[in-house]
Specification:
The protein is α/β, with parallel strands linked by helices. It has 11 helices and 12 strands.
């Protein structure tokens, strides 16, 4: 794979949270290659490691102790820049991590109202990104450009309707789209959206989905990462999926046609999909709900087996203490293993 296509390269990432009496591994052997212009869905239920992965990518990871193994490398202007450095067997945020966040990353939170200053009008909010660079258009033209991309401003609703509005005067859907417009006005290379349609009604969900798709059409070089538990939403906005369970990437789906071969998917992915198609079962999932237990030591094998795997063929052969097949050789080169089959290959590893 050509390195000029790669935006983020994550290798062998292990991340830890530590409380007073307990250490928990919340990312286990995370390996992702994210290409420029791609649209990635990171999916899994609560506690699967989605937020932890988000924090490590954006450099907002709690560093006590935080990352205990691996690397996150950004490819910027033909240069490799690491988000973290290792010294004395400990990981620290790299010196230039703030510059990466400032220049490269735009973040759309689940609750935009918690990020939009309630005492500032939209005009003042947009002034912050307007002043980041020298502009050849006025502030109001700048606002109109990005609010139009986000589906707020139109011929019927000119920018003058929103200049003096405060965030608390916006509906939930409008607040989400204003947040999208603010992020776009930063002109990032990478947009990360966390549960973007949570709490929105069906109409506003459709508007947000259309907004993201229009952004991709008008900005084909923008890379997007969507954090969600909802395959339904992701199916409209992403090209490929990483499925997380217990901090482990148990599946990488690169073609939506794979959903037509559900029996070939990881048992956990099957369970997630079945929860969206309940077949008349009001409870949704075909299996009993079992909480995801965080691991107190580095992951070996598939965490789903330990919790509630229903694959009897797998249970007979695959044991929780098995090692995970490597993703990279001894030189650190990517082995290009199909993650879809990776869990199955684990069965034969003793």
């Amino acid at each position: 794979m050509s390195s000029n296509k790669i935006l983020i390269d994550i290798k062998s990432l292990y991340s830890v949270l530590r409380s007073k009496n307990k250490t928990s591994y919340v990312m286990n052997d995370g390996n992702l290659i994210i290409n420029r212009g791609s649209s990635i869905g990171v999916v899994g239920e609560s506690g699967s490691g989605k937020t932890q992965l988000l924090k490590t990518i954006t450099g907002t990871q709690d560093m006590v102790p935080g990352i205990v193994n691996g690397s996150i490398t950004y490819h910027i202007d033909n240069n490799e820049k690491s988000m973290y450095n290792k010294k004395d067997n400990k990981y620290y945020l790299a010196k230039g991590h703030n510059q990466i966040k400032k220049d490269l990353i735009g973040f759309i939170p689940q609750d935009p109202r918690s990020f939009l200053n309630p005492f500032w009008t939209l005009e003042k909010l947009f002034t912050q990104t307007y002043n980041l660079k020298k502009r050849n258009i006025s502030l109001h033209e700048f606002m109109a450009k990005y609010l139009k991309q986000a589906g707020i401003v139109s011929d019927r609703h000119p920018v003058t309707e929103f200049i003096h509005k405060f965030p608390n005067k916006l509906s939930g859907g409008q607040a989400q789209r204003v947040m999208i417009a603010l992020v776009l006005s930063k002109e990032p290379e990478l947009i990360i959206a966390d549960e973007s349609t949570t709490g929105l009604d069906v109409t506003n969900q459709k508007i947000v989905i259309d907004t993201f798709n229009n952004i991709r059409l008008s900005n084909p070089d923008i890379t997007m990462i969507f954090i969600s538990h909802d395959f339904g939403f992701l199916s409209h906005v992403v090209d490929e999926y990483y499925v997380l369970y217990g901090g482990f990437i148990c599946e990488h789906i690169t073609d939506k046609k794979q959903f037509l071969k559900i029996d070939e998917l990881h048992p956990y992915t099957q369970d997630l999909i079945s929860s969206l198609i309940p077949d008349g079962n009001v409870s949704g999932s075909k299996h009993d709900e079992v909480s995801i237990s965080l691991l107190s030591s580095p992951l070996k094998g598939c965490p789903y087996f330990n919790a509630k795997c229903q694959d009897e063929n797998c249970k007979d052969e695959f044991h929780f203490h098995n090692e995970i097949p490597p993703m990279f050789d001894e030189n650190g080169d990517y082995l290009n293993i199909d993650l879809n089959k990776r869990w199955k290959r684990s069965k034969s590893v003793k």
